[in-house]
Amino acid sequence: MPFGTAEYQKRIRKTKERMAAQGIEVLLITNPSNMNYLSGYDGWSFYVHQMLIVIDDEDQPLWVGRMLDANGAKITTWLYHENIIPYPDIYVQSETLHPMDFIADILKQIGQDKQSIGVEMESYYFSAKCFEQLKKGLPDARFKDASDLVNWIRIVKSDQEIEFMKIAGKFADQAVMSGINLIDENVRECDVAAKILHSQVSGTEEHGGDYPAIMPLLPSGKKTSTPHLTWTDDRYKSGDSIILELAGCYRRYHAPLARTVNLGRPEKFLKELADITVEGLNECLAIIKPGVVLEEVAQTWSESIAKSGFSKESRIGYSVGVGYPPDWGEHTASIRKGDRTVLQPNMTFHLIPGMWSEGSGFAVSESFRVTEDGCETFSSLPRGLFVKEGSGLE
Amino acid sequence: MPFGTAEYQKRIRKTKERMAAQGIEVLLITNPSNMNYLSGYDGWSFYVHQMLIVIDDEDQPLWVGRMLDANGAKITTWLYHENIIPYPDIYVQSETLHPMDFIADILKQIGQDKQSIGVEMESYYFSAKCFEQLKKGLPDARFKDASDLVNWIRIVKSDQEIEFMKIAGKFADQAVMSGINLIDENVRECDVAAKILHSQVSGTEEHGGDYPAIMPLLPSGKKTSTPHLTWTDDRYKSGDSIILELAGCYRRYHAPLARTVNLGRPEKFLKELADITVEGLNECLAIIKPGVVLEEVAQTWSESIAKSGFSKESRIGYSVGVGYPPDWGEHTASIRKGDRTVLQPNMTFHLIPGMWSEGSGFAVSESFRVTEDGCETFSSLPRGLFVKEGSGLE
């Protein structure tokens, strides 16, 4: 396990405090990041239904999952083996049986079926069908939306979590540079993606890398008008600009990072866009410290780019940490207008003021932690547009 | 786009036929594999809500997604640009607004709010909250569960899809061998995973690889008692056995493959387990042809291993094809008792009779298509236990 049992118990304690405050007696956790955060559970089994059940007056949560994965839960969690409850394989992707029927039965058996039950209504892996089956199976329960209850606990990191994110930050730097170093005329996008993945996953001599929750995003040329394209087997051409967005990941903790590289002399517009974006990013980082409200950071950005006549509708960042596919974001605070989250030490964010505009896109980002009096980024790469001339990097 | 417009139109036609048969006038598709299958849409944007809307009397579906991803939809789909409808960024991961509110408004505007509306209740990305918001926003609609409506169309492949899966099969073979070749005493698990990913994604000279919907699964040593652990930075030890399960992926089409390797002379039990499993797999492949019912394949497996006193509860395979994280399975037919699906030419499956038992696990698998009179596997690797002695491969 990445953390000692005491750390997990502390997290459970905080979860129960929030449950009490929200009038929740039983919390059903299906978000794999939250399952990992509270139990240590780690496996690529979230494609079938699984759950961690936190009960207000029980010391340990229950893990319920597919029979095949129960040994994985024994290996990766701090839970007593009797708290690991496998469901028979016949419940898997069946048209007649549903794992939530099994879970409803368990809750009945342990007398927790008439309680106030929190469910993560907006978790990726809590489908509409899951909720329907639970409601059918537990007619006496009162359900409450607890979508981000655990997520909000995750927003402030322990020192050990910060250490993990710093390691992830090193992975991100080396992965971005491995991509930029390989990118050249006639090189295929897929070969750059392969190189980046190799770098992300092999990590360093000291620490091995984990798979990131999002695959490398590598839009190039006219595709830089949109951020979330991955790669093809097309070859780069002279003049192309390429946006690299990826994360280092260590023991499920992410440090995302974006940089942009141009093959050959960049056009004037792209150069200006890069300068404006980097300046806006720098101004944002400069104001970050405990007590600042997130929307003030968004405001700083808007004012900075407005000086050059630019505007941007989308949010410029979000809290980050533990993640499983499809997202490394924590789904709590966003850096945007209207978000009144107050910064505290050891909150961690990915600040990504990307300008994915028609014709020429530019993105640069930093992942950082809030310190006692400012912020500390996890990357040490230069922020400006990278330019490759001939076969050299400028 | 991977296919011509005619192929997509044919898929839409089949979808409408099924809609009509099920009394569905408007189909809301949130499963990214189904979105890709019908529209070509391909981007790592399924971490925010997005949807393809198929309306019975409209030629083209509507794509609705995040503003930032609209250009991605223009680039990767065959849809008219006016059918690509972006929602404002303020709907993203907000505690007060939900993208389904936006979608409900669109359906009202186009007069489709009083219809019989199919929703994919069991899609990963159709959360319980999505359904609640839709029901609130569309009080006059009649909702029907259409979870696997499009999935069932996907089960029989066109010849071009089969070509893609054959390419993916080559990627899988080379990726498994790249892992087995690197695995050795003192080598870190993460370095093997990195090598495998590099091989999967770079592909061949002719064709570039895509990211697989599941990361390489690499349980080793006592972790072979469970199938879905990924990797750590532990080093392999003499005597370890390692199960490799991974897929080649070409243009989102998958060919999964599993093999097992032992570092040094295998113990007697593992050798026997391997022989029994391979024999069972071979017997299953031998009976496959059009007209056979899937549960007969499961029965053949059970009888084959029963001769040696073994049994296995979990399913031994499933249909496979287009996939996005977290799964490459199609969620339709499973090779298990009770599944009455009748085999047809160009159905494709991953047959994985893994024996993840305490102490010593062994897995071997084949992805195949059903032919006119039998089956054709996408891999050409030997099926038995691989043994590495010294630094050589036996």
Unreliable runs of chain A: none
By secondary-structure content and strand pairing, the structural class of chain A works out as alpha+beta
Radius of gyration of chain A, whole Å? 23 Å
Indicate the overall shape of chain A: globular
Strand content of chain A: 15-25%
Helix content of chain A: 25-40%
Mean pLDDT of chain A: 96
Interface with most residues: A-B, 84 and 84 residues
Q: How are the strands of the largest sheet of chain A arranged?
A: 4-3-2-1-5-6
**What are the secondary-structure elements of chain A, in order, as H or E?**
HEHEEHEHEHEHHHEEHHEEEEEEEEE
Question: Distance between the terminal alpha carbons of chain A, to the nearest Å?
Answer: 43 Å
Q: Sheet with the most strands of chain A?
A: 6 strands, mixed
What is the count of DSSP helices of chain A, taking H or I runs of 4+ residues? 10
Counted beta strands of chain A? 17
Oligomer: homodimer
Task: Summarize the structure in words.
- In chain A, helix 4 (99-109) packs parallel to helix 5 (128-137), helix 7 packs antiparallel against helix 8 (189-202) and helix 9 packs antiparallel against helix 10 (294-306).
- Chain A is of the alpha+beta class and 394 residues long.
- In chain A, a hairpin with a 2-residue loop joins strand 16 and strand 17.
- Chain A has ten helices and 17 strands.
- In chain A, the strands form four sheets. Chain A has a six-stranded mixed sheet with strand order 4-3-2-1-5-6, sandwiched between helices.
- Chain A has helices at residues 5-21, 32-39, 70-76, 99-109, 128-137, 149-154, 159-182, 189-202, 268-287, 294-306; strands at 26-29, 51-55, 62-66, 84-87, 116-119, 142-145, 241-250, 253-263, 317-324, 327-334, 348-351, 355-356, 361-362, 366-370, 375-377, 386-389, 392-393.
- Chain A starts with a helix and ends with a strand.
- At the A-B interface, helix 3, helix 5, helix 8 and strand 10 of A face helix 3, helix 5, helix 8 and strand 10 of B.
